[in-house]
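Researcher: We plan to redesign the surface later, but first we want a full-length starting point. Tokens attached.
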């Protein structure tokens, strides 16, 4: 039995790692569309079609539940996939809602009307496609009122992280934080709206300063997934776990091993 975790590249491994630690008895099937990464510079229709194709492949491999551990895919494809109808017994979930529930101090599944919350000024760091979609602001508006969100598109950062160029990645983080602070000098919270960005969390925190609370998604998504599986014990699927990629398995395995600092072996999707 396996739960699917999808990402355009390696960023979703941060969610997988947290989920494996939180849910050691659950098998996970990780699927990276590395041949077409990054999604963050693609248009919404392209992201939707690529995500749909990958999710359908994961369903064929026995995953009844797929987590879109890619903020760009969650922003551009999740709602449309759900609205167009899913096959019986299949579910797709995204990564925005668990984070927003934490930010707005809501319990899992709280669908009460939007209300005032403590945090009023939020910085969002995300890919250009996620920023353009305004999906984070839309989901936040369902749950909170009076929150000012300033979004910063972090062009180039995913590529630097995927390439393992941490020197360039740090320079880009500091540049993007500087740009954000020129628009919102005193954010109270910062959202790392891409699953690659937790690898740079310490740099974001240093650049933003100690008075800004930084939220990243791995542990929040893992906790939310645990709650979901407790309520939906029929969603464990029939497939087996493993790592799949549309890219070169050998190359992706090397980068993934460096990414998580443990041996990871991918096979062709």
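Model: Full-length starting sequence:
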């Amino acid at each position: 039995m396996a739960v699917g975790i999808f990402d355009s590249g390696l960023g979703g491994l941060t969610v997988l790692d947290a989920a494996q630690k939180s849910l050691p008895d659950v098998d996970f099937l990780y699927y990276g569309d590395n041949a077409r990464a990054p999604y963050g510079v693609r248009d919404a229709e392209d992201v939707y079609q690529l995500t749909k194709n990958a999710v359908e492949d994961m369903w064929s491999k026995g995953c009844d539940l797929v987590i879109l551990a890619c903020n760009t895919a969650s922003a551009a494809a999740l709602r449309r996939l759900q609205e167009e109808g899913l096959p019986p017994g299949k579910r797709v979930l995204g990564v925005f809602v668990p984070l927003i529930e934490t930010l707005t101090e809501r319990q899992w599944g709280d669908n009460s009307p939007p209300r005032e919350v403590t945090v009023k000024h939020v910085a969002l760091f995300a890919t250009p496609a996620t920023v353009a979609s305004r999906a984070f602001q839309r989901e936040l508006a369902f749950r909170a009122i009076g929150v000012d969100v300033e979004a910063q598109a972090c062009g180039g950062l995913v590529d630097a992280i995927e390439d393992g160029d941490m020197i360039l990645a740090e320079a880009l983080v500091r540049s993007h934080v500087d740009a954000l602070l020129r628009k919102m000098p005193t954010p109270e919270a910062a959202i790392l709206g891409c699953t690659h960005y937790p690898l740079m969390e310490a740099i974001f925190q240093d650049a933003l300063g100690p008075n800004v609370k930084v939220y990243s998604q791995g542990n929040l998504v893992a906790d939310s997934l645990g709650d979901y599986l407790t309520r939906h014990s029929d969603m464990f699927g029939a497939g087996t776990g493993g790592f799949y990629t549309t890219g070169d398995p050998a190359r992706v395995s090397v980068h993934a091993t460096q990414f998580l600092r443990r041996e990871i072996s991918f096979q062709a999707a």
